[in-house]
C-alpha cells in the first residue's frame, strides 16, 4: 500500500509542481543560516560506484542483489519523489554516468519535474564527472575528458543550474595535486574528500587544519583550491543511518513507550559539538548517506525531517544548534562567507594509510594489463576524435561510436576500475566494455582514413595485439601491405614502427616511393611460447617513420636476400634450457633469425657492448645483466634487476610487506642473446622461468627500452608475489626522488618524510614509501640524473640512494579486507595472468633540461596509431593524402595538442597545453588563426578547462591562506587570469594570438561554417 500512496501523491505534486517558477539555483538557492549558532549542513547523498563488486549495469538495475544489495535506478526514482514532497529537502547527484542512463528512460513530464528541482537547487549536481575518478593511476588527459563528458551532458540537459560548483572525491584512496589543479582550472570553488593518512588526519584535527588552501601547481600561480576533509569519512553519523540497509534506530516521536526523541537529539547534538570543535567557522557539514543508500528514500527523508524538526525545536530553550538540509556547495558558500584563514598545502595526499600496517599502495600496480588496456583506450579515443574532426564524420553511427568510447573511458577512470580494486567478474566486464568502445573508435578511424587518404576502400585494420607481435592482417603475408600512420601529437615525430611478419625479405617505401631503411628482427622466444599466441609470424619488420599527421608506408616482399639460419647460443643454464625444450621453442627460434648475432662468452671479466651512435650499453657476461649505460655524454654504472616481494597479507588495495622479510632478488645468472641490427639492437634476457626481458635501443632514439614479460607468477598457500624492476646507480640522490602527478607536474619525494607530518613507517618501511608513477620517476645528484618512464600506471619508490624501483605485476593469495572480498589472482586463458610492458630509461646530465623526458612522455602516451591495408601496388600509396589535414607543426615546440574533438554538430573543442613547467620552459605565444581557418572556423570562444563554461563567466571562490597578508573584509573571487579569447573570422589575425605560460592549458570552442 505504501507504493500506491506514493504514486497518488506523486501525481498530485506533479500537477502542482510543473507550474513555471523563477529559477533560483546555485548559491542563491542555499538555505538560510543563523549567525551565532552552529549551523549544521545536513547533506543527503548516495555513493554509487560505477562498478566494483557488481558491474555498472548490475548496479544500475539492481541486478545480482545477492552480491550486494544496490540498484541505482531506484535510488534516483525514490529520491526525486521525496524531493518533490518538500522544497526544503536537498540531494546531491554525483555520478553523471548513472544519472544520464536514468534520464534517458524518463517520460517528458517527469523530466520537467526534475528540471524544476534542478532549477531550484533542490537536486544539486556535485562533482558531475562521468565517474568519481581515481587520482593515483589516472592520466590528466583522461580526467579532463571524463569531466568534459559529464559536464557537457549536464549543461545540454539542464543548463547553468546543473553546473557543479564543488568536487566530491569522497572515496578515492589518496589524492593528487593535479586533480586539485584541474578542478581550479575548471572553475570549481573547492573539493571535499574523506581519506587521508591517519596520522595526518589526527594532527589536522588538533590544529583545526582539516580544511586548507591547496597550492595545486608550482607553475600556475592562481591555481589554488579550497580543500576539505570530511570529519567522519563519508558515511552517516554513527548511530544515525536511517537507510533501509541500516539497523540504527529510527526517530520515534509518537505517543509510544519507545519514544526516543530526547535521546536521539542529545546524541546527535553531542556528535555535532564534537565536529564543530574541529572546524574554523560556525558551519559544519554532516553527510547523510553511504554506498548505494536511498534505495527507499522515503525512510531516509522521513527520519531526517524529524531530526531537523527536533534539533531545531531545542533553540526555543537556548540550544545554539541550527540544522537544515544542505549540499556541499551550500556548505562551502557559507564557509567562504565566514572569511577565515586556512593553512596551506603544497604537495599531495599519497600514500594513503588507514593504519600503520595498511598503506594503500598496491592498487598503484594492481591489474597491470587492465591499466595498460585503459591507455590503449585513451590512445584510440584521441586518434578517433582528431580523425573525426579532420574527416568531418557526422553520421549518427559515427557520433554514437565516439560517444560510447568517451563514456567507457569515463567509466575506466572510476576509482574501482583503473585501480584494479574491483571483483574479477567486474574487471572482465570492464574489458568487454572497453573492447567494444575501442572497436567503435577504430571503426571511426577507418571511416576517416578512407576519406583522408587515397585508399577509399582501405581496410585500415588496427591490430590490438601488437604487444605480443600478433596481427591477423599480416599473419599470412605482409606483401603489398600499406601501413598508414596517424600521429596524435602536434609536431612531426619520428618513431620506429614494428610490423609482425614472416621471416622473409621486405622493402619499405614511403609515399614518394623512396626506400626506407628497414630490417627484420626475431621476436623473443618467450613471446612465441605464449600458448594463446598464434605463431604464423615470428619476426617483426622494423622501420623508422616520420609523420606530421598522416603518412603511409608500403611494404613489399623481395626475393633477393637469403634466409640465414642462426643457431641459438650454447648454454649450460639448465633451467632455461629445459624450459625451451619443453616448449619446443628453440627449434622455431633457430629458424627465424635474420640478424647478425653477437657471439657472447661467459668468460670472467668479459662484457658485451651493444651500442648505437647515441647509446652504449654494457652487459656483464657473468651475470647476463646490464652493467653500465652511456648516453648524452654521461657514463654511469647502472645495474638492472628484478626483485620479488613475497607477501601474504597484501590485497588489491594494500601492498603489505611481511615483517622482517626482505625483498628477494633474482640473483641467478641471466641467459642472454644479443641481436645487433643496423636500426635496432636487442638484448634478449631470461631471468627465470617466468621473467624475461628485451633491452632495446634504436638508432637515433635517446632512450633505452626495457620490455618485460612476467608470469605466470607462482604462488602457494602462504605466499603471494609482487614483482619489481630495479635500477641501481651510483647517483647520490640523498633520499630524494621525483614522481609525476597524473602525468603532468613533478612532485619531490623524500624517503621516510611527508610534507605535514611524521608518518609511522615502523611496520611498512617500503610500502609506506611507495608513490603512484603514472608516467615518470626520477632521481639526480649535482651531476647526473636518471629517469624511468612507463607505459601504464605503477607504484614506485627509491629505497636507497641512486636506486629506482617500479612494481610491475602482483599475484596475491588473500583479500586485504577493504571490501572487494577476493584475492587479486588474475587468470587469463586458464593460467595466472602473464603481463608484458615497457619501462624506458633516460640518463642525462642535470644541466640538461628535463624537456627530453617531457617529449618522451608524450610519445609514449600517444605514439603513432598504426593501421593496415592491402594495396595492389606501390603506386596506390604515393601521394597518399586525398584531403588536406591541418598541420600543427607551427605551434611552438613545447605546445601539445591536448584535445581536438567534435563538440556539437557544428563545433570543435580544441585544447592546447604548454607541457613544460616553470623550470623547463618559458611563456610561449603563437597564432591559431591558421588552424582556425583550416578547421573551417567562423567563431572562436574560450572556455574553462572542461569546455562547458565561457571563461568570461568563470568566477570562483578565493580563500585566504595563512601567512598571506591580512584577511579581506569581503568575500573574494578569482576570475579569468587573462582576457579570454573571443573572435570571429572577420577579425584581424592578431586577435587570434594565444599565450601559454608553463603548464598552462587553454580550451577553445570553434564554431564551424
Ligand atoms: Zn567508491
Automatic annotation (TrEMBL):
EC number: 3.2.1.-
GO cellular component annotations of the record: lysosome
Gene name, Swiss-Prot/TrEMBL: LManV
Residues in the signal sequence: 1-23
Catalytic activity: Hydrolysis of terminal, non-reducing alpha-D-mannose residues in alpha-D-mannosides
Segments crossing the lipid bilayer: none
Enzyme class: hydrolase
PANTHER family with a match to the protein in the record: ALPHA-MANNOSIDASE (PTHR11607), LYSOSOMAL ALPHA-MANNOSIDASE (PTHR11607:SF3)
Keywords attached to this entry: Disulfide bond, Glycoprotein, Glycosidase, Hydrolase, Metal-binding, Signal, Zinc
Superkingdom of source: Eukaryota
GO biological process, one term: mannose metabolic process
Swiss-Prot/TrEMBL cofactor(s): Zn(2+)
Family recorded in the similarity comment: Belongs to the glycosyl hydrolase 38 family.
SMART domains xrefs: Alpha-mann_mid
Stated name of the protein: Alpha-mannosidase
GO molecular function, one term: metal ion binding
Domain Glycoside hydrolase family 38 central intervals: 358-434
Cofactor, free-text remark: Binds 1 zinc ion per subunit.
Organism per entry: Drosophila pseudoobscura pseudoobscura
Amino acid at each position: 500500500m505504501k507504493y500506491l500512496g506514493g504514486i497518488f501523491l506523486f501525481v498530485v505534486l506533479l500537477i502542482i509542481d510543473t507550474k513555471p517558477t523563477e529559477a533560483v539555483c546555485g548559491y542563491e538557492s542555499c538555505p538560510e543560516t543563523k549567525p551565532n549558532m552552529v549551523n549544521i549542513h545536513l547533506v543527503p547523498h548516495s555513493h554509487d560506484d560505477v562498478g566494483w563488486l557488481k558491474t555498472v549495469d548490475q548496479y544500475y538495475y539492481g541486478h545480482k542483489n545477492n552480491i550486494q544489495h544496490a540498484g541505482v535506478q531506484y535510488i534516483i526514482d525514490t529520491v526525486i519523489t521525496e524531493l518533490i514532497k518538500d522544497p526544503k529537502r536537498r540531494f546531491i547527484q554525483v555520478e553523471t554516468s548513472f544519472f544520464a542512463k536514468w534520464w534517458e528512460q524518463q517520460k517528458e513530464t517527469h523530466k520537467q519535474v526534475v528540471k524544476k528541482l534542478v532549477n531550484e537547487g533542490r537536486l544539486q549536481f556535485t562533482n558531475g564527472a562521468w565517474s568519481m575518478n581515481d587520482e593515483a593511476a589516472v592520466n590528466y588527459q583522461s580526467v579532463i575528458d571524463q569531466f568534459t563528458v559529464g559536464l557537457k551532458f549536464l549543461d545540454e540537459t539542464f543548463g547553468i543550474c546543473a553546473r557543479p560548483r564543488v568536487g566530491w572525491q569522497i572515496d578515492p584512496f589518496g589524492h593528487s595535486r593535479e586533480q586539485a589543479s584541474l578542478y581550479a582550472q575548471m572553475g570549481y570553488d573547492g573539493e571535499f574528500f574523506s581519506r587521508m593518512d591517519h596520522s595526518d588526519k589526527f594532527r589536522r584535527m588538533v590544529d583545526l587544519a582539516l580544511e586548507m588552501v591547496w597550492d595545486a601547481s608550482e607553475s600556475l600561480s592562481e591555481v589554488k583550491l579550497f580543500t576539505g576533509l570530511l570529519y567522519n569519512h563519508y558515511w552517516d553519523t554513527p548511530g544515525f543511518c536511517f537507510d533501509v540497509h541500516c539497523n540504527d534506530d529510527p526517530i520515534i516521536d509518537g505517543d509510544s513507550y519507545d519514544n526516543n526523541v530526547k535521546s536521539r537529539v542529545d546524541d546527535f547534538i553531542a556528535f555535532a559539538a564534537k565536529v564543530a570543535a574541529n572546524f574554523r567557522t560556525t558551519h559544519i557539514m554532516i553527510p547523510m548517506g553511504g554506498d548505494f543508500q536511498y534505495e527507499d528514500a522515503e525512510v531516509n527523508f522521513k527520519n531526517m525531517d524529524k531530526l531537523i524538526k527536533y534539533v531545531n525545536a531545542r533553540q526555543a530553550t537556548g540550544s545554539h544548534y541550527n540544522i537544515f538540509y544542505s549540499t556541499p556547495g551550500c556548505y562551502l558558500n557559507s564557509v567562504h562567507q565566514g572569511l577565515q584563514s586556512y593553512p596551506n598545502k603544497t604537495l599531495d595526499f599519497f600514500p594513503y594509510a588507514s593504519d600503520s600496517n595498511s598503506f594503500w599502495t598496491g592498487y598503484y600496480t594492481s591489474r597491470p594489463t587492465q591499466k595498460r588496456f585503459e591507455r590503449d583506450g585513451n590512445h584510440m579515443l584521441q586518434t578517433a576524435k582528431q580523425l573525426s574532426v579532420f574527416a568531418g564524420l557526422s553520421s549518427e553511427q559515427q557520433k554514437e561510436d565516439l560517444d560510447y568510447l568517451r563514456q567507457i573511458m569515463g567509466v575506466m577512470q572510476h576509482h574501482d576500475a583503473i585501480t584494479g580494486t574491483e571483483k574479477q567478474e567486474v574487471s572482465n566486464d570492464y574489458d568487454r566494455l572497453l573492447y567494444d568502445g575501442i572497436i567503435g573508435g577504430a571503426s571511426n578511424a577507418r571511416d576517416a582514413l578512407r576519406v583522408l587518404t587515397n585508399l577509399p576502400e582501405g581496410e585500415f585494420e588496427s591490430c590490438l595485439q601488437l604487444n605480443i607481435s600478433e596481427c591477423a592482417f599480416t599473419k599470412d603475408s605482409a606483401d603489398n601491405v600499406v601501413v598508414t600512420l596517424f600521429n596524435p601529437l602536434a609536431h612531426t615525430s619520428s618513431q620506429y614502427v614494428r610490423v609482425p611478419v614472416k621471416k622473409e625479405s621486405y622493402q619499405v617505401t614511403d609515399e614518394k616511393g623512396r626506400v626506407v631503411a628497414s630490417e627484420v628482427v626475431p621476436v623473443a622466444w618467450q613471446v612465441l611460447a605464449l600458448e594463446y599466441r598464434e605463431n604464423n609470424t615470428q619476426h617483426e619488420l622494423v622501420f623508422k617513420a616520420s609523420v606530421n599527421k598522416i603518412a603511409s608506408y608500403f611494404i613489399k616482399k623481395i626475393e633477393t636476400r637469403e634466409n640465414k639460419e642462426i643457431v641459438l647460443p650454447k648454454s649450460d643454464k639448465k633451467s632455461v634450457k629445459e624450459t625451451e625444450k619443453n616448449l619446443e621453442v628453440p627449434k622455431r627460434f633457430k629458424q627465424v633469425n635474420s640478424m647478425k648475432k653477437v657471439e657472447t662468452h661467459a668468460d670472467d671479466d668479459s662484457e658485451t657492448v651493444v651500442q648505437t651512435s647515441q647509446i652504449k650499453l654494457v652487459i656483464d657476461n657473468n651475470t647476463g645483466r646490464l652493467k653500465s649505460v652511456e648516453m648524452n655524454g654521461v657514463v654511469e654504472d647502472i645495474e638492472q634487476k628484478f626483485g620479488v616481494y613475497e607477501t601474504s597479507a597484501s590485497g588489491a588495495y594494500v601492498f603489505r610487506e611481511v615483517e622482517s622479510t626482505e625483498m628477494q632478488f633474482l640473483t641467478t645468472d641471466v641467459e642472454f642473446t644479443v641481436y645487433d641490427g643496423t636500426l635496432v639492437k636487442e638484448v634478449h634476457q631470461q631471468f627465470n622461468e617466468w621473467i624475461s626481458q628485451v633491452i632495446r635501443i634504436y638508432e637515433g632514439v635517446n632512450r633505452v627500452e626495457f620490455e618485460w614479460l612476467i608470469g605466470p607468477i607462482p604462488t602457494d598457500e602462504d605466499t603471494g608475489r609482487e614483482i619489481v624492476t630495479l635500477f641501481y646507480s651510483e647517483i647520490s640522490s640523498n633520499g630524494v626522488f621525483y614522481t609525476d602527478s597524473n602525468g603532468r607536474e613533478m612532485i619531490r619525494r623524500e624517503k621516510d618524510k611527508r610534507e605535514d607530518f611524521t608518518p609511522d613507517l615502523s611496520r611498512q618501511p617500503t610500502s609506506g614509501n611507495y608513490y603512484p608513477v603514472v608516467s615518470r620517476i626520477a632521481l639526480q645528484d649535482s651531476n647526473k640524473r636518471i629517469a624511468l618512464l612507463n607505459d601504464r600506471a605503477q607504484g614506485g619508490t627509491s629505497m636507497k640512494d641512486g636506486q629506482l624501483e617500479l612494481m610491475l605485476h602482483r599475484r596475491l593469495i588473500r583479500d586485504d579486507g577493504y571490501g572487494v572480498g577476493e584475492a587479486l589472482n588474475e587468470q587469463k586463458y586458464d593460467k595466472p595472468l602473464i603481463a608484458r610492458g615497457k619501462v624506458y630509461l633516460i640518463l642525462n646530465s642535470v644541466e640538461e633540461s628535463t624537456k627530453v623526458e617531457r617529449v618522451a612522455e608524450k610519445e609514449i602516451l600517444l605514439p603513432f596509431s598504426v593501421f593496415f591495408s592491402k594495396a595492389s601496388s606501390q603506386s596506390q600509396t604515393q601521394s597518399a593524402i586525398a584531403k588536406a589535414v591541418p598541420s600543427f607543426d607551427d605551434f611552438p615546440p613545447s605546445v601539445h595538442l591536448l584535445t581536438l574533438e567534435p563538440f556539437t554538430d557544428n563545433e570543435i573543442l580544441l585544447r592546447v597545453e604548454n607541457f613544460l613547467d616553470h623550470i623547463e620552459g618559458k611563456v610561449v605565444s603563437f597564432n591559431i588563426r591558421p588552424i582556425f581557418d583550416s578547421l573551417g572556423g567562423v567563431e572562436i570562444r574560450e572556455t574553462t578547462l572542461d569546455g562547458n563554461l565561457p571563461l568570461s563567466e568563470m568566477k570562483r571562490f578565493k580563500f585566504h591562506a595563512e601567512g598571506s597578508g591580512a584577511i579581506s573584509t569581503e568575500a573574494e573571487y578569482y576570475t579569468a587570469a587573462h582576457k579570454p579569447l573571443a573572435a570571429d573570422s572577420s577579425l584581424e589575425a592578431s586577435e587570434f594570438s594565444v599565450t601559454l605560460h608553463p603548464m598552462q592549458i587553454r580550451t577553445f570552442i570553434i564554431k564551424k561554417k
